[in-house]
Design goal:
The complex is a heterodimer of chains A (140) and B (133).
Chain A: E1 6-9, E2 12-16, H1 23-40, E3 44-48, H2 57-72, E4 76-80, H3 84-93, E5 101-103, H4 106-118
Parallel strand pairs in A: 2-3, 3-4, 4-5
Antiparallel strand pairs in A: 1-2
Helix pairs in contact in A: 1-2
Chain B: E1 2-10, H1 13-30, H2 34-53, E2 58-67, E3 70-79, H3 87-90, H4 104-111, E4 114-120, E5 124-132
Antiparallel strand pairs in B: 1-2, 2-3, 3-5, 4-5
The chains are: A alpha/beta (140), B alpha+beta (133).
C-alpha cells in the first residue's frame, strides 16, 4: 500500500504531500504520523500542502484530527503552503480548520514551530503573526 | 447542449481520485479560473465520496455543456444505495449519518451554481450539479 513519507529533522517530523490522496492514504498518514510522534518523541509536526490542489471535507477533517492527536501526544502541528484557491474553497465549503496552526510557507512554519517550543507558555495565539515581524520568526 | 459526455465508475477511493482528475481536466478545457476549478473539483470529491460511502458505489457522469457562447460543466452522481429519507435534513450543514462533518451535500451545493437532488429510500440517490463559466 502507498504511504506518504515522513522525515525526521531533530525533534520535528516533516511531511510533504505531493500526490492527490485517496481516502485510505489520508488515514494511513494519520496513523503513521501519530505512531511516529510517539516513537520518536517528536515535539513538532510540519505538514506542507503546497502541492495539494484540493482539500475537501474529508482531507480537512483528517488534517484537523492529526493536529488534535499530535497535541494530545505533546507535539505541535503547523500546516504550511495552502494555495489561495484551496483556502477560498475550503472556507466556502464550511471548513475553517480553526484548531490548526498554519503558516504561508515551510520556512515560516519551521520558525513558528521553534517559537512554539522555545516559549511554550505565553505563545502568540494567531499563528501567522508569530513569524511576520522578525526575520527569523522568533518571539522576543 | 451536451458537447462531451463521460461516464466513470465510483467503486473505490481510487475511483474518487480519477473522478477528481477528470473533472479538473474538463474544467481546464472549458477555461474556468483556478478558483472555480478548485471549487468544482472539491464539490466533485464530496459527491463522489457520498456515492461511495453512503450509496455503496455508483457512477459519475461528467458533461461539458454549451449554451450559445456560454459553457458549463454538469456532474451527475448516481447510486443504487439506501437513499436519503429526509432530503431537507440531509442538506443541512453539519447533519451526518456517516461520522463525517456533514458538509458534503450542503458544501457541494454552495460551491456550484445549480444543484438537483433526487432520492428514493431503497432505490438510490442522484445528485446533479452545474457550474457555468
Amino acid at each position: 500500500m502507498d504511504r506518504i513519507p515522513i522525515l525526521k529533522m531533530g525533534e520535528f517530523l516533516l511531511v510533504t504531500i505531493q500526490v492527490d490522496m485517496h481516502d485510505r492514504l489520508v488515514l494511513q498518514l494519520q496513523s503513521d504520523l501519530t505512531e511516529r510522534i510517539a516513537r520518536t518523541n517528536a515535539r513538532g509536526v510540519l505538514i506542507d500542502i503546497s502541492a495539494l490542489e484540493m482539500v475537501d471535507s474529508f482531507i480537512g477533517r483528517t488534517i484537523a484530527n492529526i493536529a488534535g492527536m499530535a497535541r494530545v501526544l505533546d507535539a505541535q502541528t503547523v500546516v504550511t503552503g495552502m494555495q489561495p484557491a484551496v483556502a477560498i474553497t475550503l472556507v466556502e465549503l464550511g471548513l475553517t480548520l480553526s484548531g490548526v496552526r498554519t503558516a504561508l510557507n515551510v520556512e515560516r512554519g519551521m520558525a513558528l514551530l521553534r517559537a512554539l517550543l522555545d516559549d511554550a507558555a505565553p505563545v502568540v495565539e494567531g499563528s501567522r503573526s508569530a513569524s511576520d515581524d522578525g526575520d527569523d520568526g522568533r518571539q522576543g | 447542449m451536451v458537447v462531451r459526455d463521460e461516464l466513470l465508475p465510483v467503486r473505490s477511493s481510487n475511483d474518487v481520485v480519477v473522478v477528481r482528475q477528470t473533472v479538473r481536466a474538463r474544467a481546464i478545457d472549458i477555461g474556468f479560473t483556478l478558483v472555480d476549478q478548485t471549487k468544482i473539483v472539491t464539490a466533485a470529491s464530496e459527491l463522489a465520496r457520498n456515492a461511495l460511502d453512503h450509496g455503496g458505489g455508483g457512477t459519475a457522469r461528467i458533461e461539458v455543456l454549451a449554451e450559445g457562447a456560454r459553457r458549463g460543466l454538469r456532474l451527475t452522481f448516481e447510486d443504487q444505495g439506501k437513499g436519503i429519507p429526509d432530503i431537507e435534513l440531509a442538506l443541512r450543514d453539519g447533519y451526518t449519518t456517516g461520522g463525517g462533518l456533514g458538509l458534503g451535500l450542503s458544501g457541494a451545493r454552495r460551491l456550484m451554481n445549480q444543484f438537483d437532488l433526487w432520492s428514493e429510500p431503497g432505490k438510490g440517490t442522484r445528485v446533479s450539479v452545474v457550474r457555468w463559466r
